[in-house]
Amino acid sequence: MKSNVVTEKMVQQNQKKNNDSLNVKKNNNSPKAKGVKGNRFLITVNVLGSAGPMRFVVNEDDLVSGVIDNSLKTYAREGRLPVLGSDVNDFILHCADVGFDALNPGESIGARGGRNFLLCKKQRQPQMTEARSEMIAKKRSGSWKEWLNKSFNKRILTH
């Protein structure tokens, strides 16, 4: 009696395995199962101040921030100069084919249709501190006439 129950369970398990393996084989033919996430294309990234471009393949749905990160890693791996750093937030990516506006880091790389890009370091404005603002105020306090008179007085006294 126990052997019949065990045999029936084994038959059911074998049927499940066969059905699962058939489903897996059917699903492996889809492009998503193979790891392809849409259109892939070759892009060229020029780094401002570097000798030559970098080329690599990206998916159309990849984010601009991911492409910047990939570019910085490739740049560092190849030992290129000048040394840029690795913070993605310090860089902007421009599409060389389609205008001069910087691409949004959350935008997909294929949204504008361009294949040539320019990677630039963001220009940081210096923070205005109290000491810096006082120093600037002191420099502006005198007029050019006072400066001119002081410079002439120094020259006359030295003779």
Automatic annotation (TrEMBL):
Residues 1-15 have a biased composition (Polar residues). It comes from the Eukaryota. Residues 38-120 form the DUF7054 domain. Residues 20-29 have a biased composition (Low complexity). Residues 1-35 are annotated as: Disordered. Signal peptide: none annotated. This is DUF7054 domain-containing protein. It comes from Quercus lobata.
